[in-house]
Amino acid sequence: MAARPPTEPPHDHEPPARPRSRWPLAALALAGITLFAAFIALGTWQVQRRAWKLDLIARVEQRIHAAPVPLGSLGPWANITTARHEYQPVQIHGRLLADRTLLSQAATELGAGFWVMTPLRLPDGSFVWINRGFVPASARQDWAAPRAPGADATTITGLLRMNEPGGGFLRRNDPQAGRWHSRDVLAMSAAQGLAPAAPFFIDAGLPGQTAAPADGPRPGMTVVRFHNSHAVYALTWYGLALMVASAAWIVARSGRRHGA
Q1: Torsion over CA of 92, 198, 163 and 140, rounded to 10 degrees?
Q2: Is CB count within 10 Å lower at the N or C end of the chain?
């Protein structure tokens, strides 16, 4: 009877596992630290922006109720800024050029319609656009009709507003077609060949202090509104930072368990 070949003795132990590389964990940790720091920085920046915006709103609320000042007292036009001058009550004297009137689309508490924009020629030959007020959509044909050249002398009291370039939401201004979705007075000046022209316009009338006319544009309809979502943005960034920190803690705890 043939002898059986000797069998190998059973293994007492599995071969030792190869140590895991620490580079992936180091790279993951570096990415987590970078994201955490970036989210914290962005959240802090939004907190600072919120403080700045609240201060701006407070200054504008105080400014809008101040007595009107001559426009010339604000200094050179190039130095007029949103933070320092928007919604400043001003008074200006010149001659309205009714034949250069343009209509800009408007959405107000009275419904949809148009702002009646007419340039005012100042004594020095420069131009400032005046938003004479709101007219309903049904009055568009009347105000868009050609008018005889005129230069009526007048004094305008109203609020200084900054230029609104580009157009409205998903709609671009079309100067050649005469379609204006925003009060882009720089583009309006170029379309009408007016120079030099101010990079701002005046909303005629003061809110709550101007009687509505029987006919014609309704002035004094300026709505003071500032977009202020900085608190939401700050909470979003801080929330993302918390999520990164939580994920890092879960990964670290899992690593300790597997290493035990």
Answers
A1: 70
A2: N
Environment class of 49 (CB within 10 Å of its CB; exposed 0-12, middle 13-18, buried 19+): middle
Return d(Cα 251, Cα 69) in angstroms, integer.
64
29-56 average pLDDT score: 86
Is the peptide bond between 123 and the residue preceding it cis, with omega within 30 degrees of 0? no
pLDDT, tens digit, 9 for 90 and up, residues 83-121: 889 999 999 999 999 999 999 999 888 899 999 999 999
93-124 burial code (b ≥16 CB/10 A, e <16): ebebbbebbbbbbbeeeeeebbbbbbbbbbee
Please state, in angstroms and rounded to a whole number, the distance separating the CA atoms of residues 209 and 65.
11
Buried b (16+ CB within 10 A) or exposed e, 189-220: bebbebeebbebbbbbbbbeebeeeeeebbbb
pTM: 0.70
Burial readout 161-186 (b: 16 or more C-beta within 10 A, e: otherwise)? bbbbeebeeeeebeeeeeebbbbbbb
45-83 pLDDT, tens digit per residue, is: 888 888 877 877 777 777 888 899 999 999 999 999 988
**Three-state secondary structure call for residue 197:** strand
Amino acid occupying residue 135: V
54 to 45, 72, 155, 189, 208: CA distances (angstroms): 14, 28, 33, 34, 24
pLDDT at 55: 79
CA-nearest of 7, 34, 4 to 245 is 34
142, pLDDT greater than 90: no
No. of helices (H) and no. of strands (E), the chain = 5, 9
Judge whether 120 and 128 are in contact, CB under 8 Å: yes
